[in-house]
Amino acid sequence: MPGELAIPAGTLFRIGRAPDPLGLPPWNLIGTGRFDNPRNPPAYRVLYAGERRACFYERLADFCVDLDGVASQGLTLEWLTTRRIAEFRIVDPDGKLRWLDLTSPETFFQFRSLFKTELTWIGLSDFDISAATNEDRSLSQAIGQWTRTQGYQGFRYVTRRAPSLSCWAVFEGIAWDVINSGSPITSGDADLQNVAHDWNLALP
Is residue 30's pLDDT more than 90? Predict the structure, then answer.
């Protein structure tokens, strides 16, 4: 059996577009996210959330320079003013929700055989967290689809840019309590400043 978790402890954060950062993405945009449904048309949507700083690592990755030191775009004031950061808590009063742990050795062991074909297709010899979170979405989206069909409500994974921090993929239909529906993100935000410092990003 793959590793499982209890309900996500504490609160989760999400950075999304104003005015509703907790809104699920439109159906026509489904398919590009790491664990999105690969079907066309898609059968479900995924809400991506996590620890607060992990959200900044995930969302600011597009602003990093490439291997040649060239940035495709800079972090702009427009980006900051059109995003909000929200906070919520999963609701599970009966303790019936199931969550997969995509960081556990048990999951790695089962998935190495379960996804053997996909691993071979993309030229990998084994399954580990890097296989599940790399830039090839064919494997990660297959993992998302399998997880949902097995009755899980979502799963924990790590941001590949800061592996000590957790992210969560939450499948559509899960209830949550909104703690903060969306605060503006300013250049003085401590987590934003830390990530910008790590990646040498200029703040507007």
Answer: yes
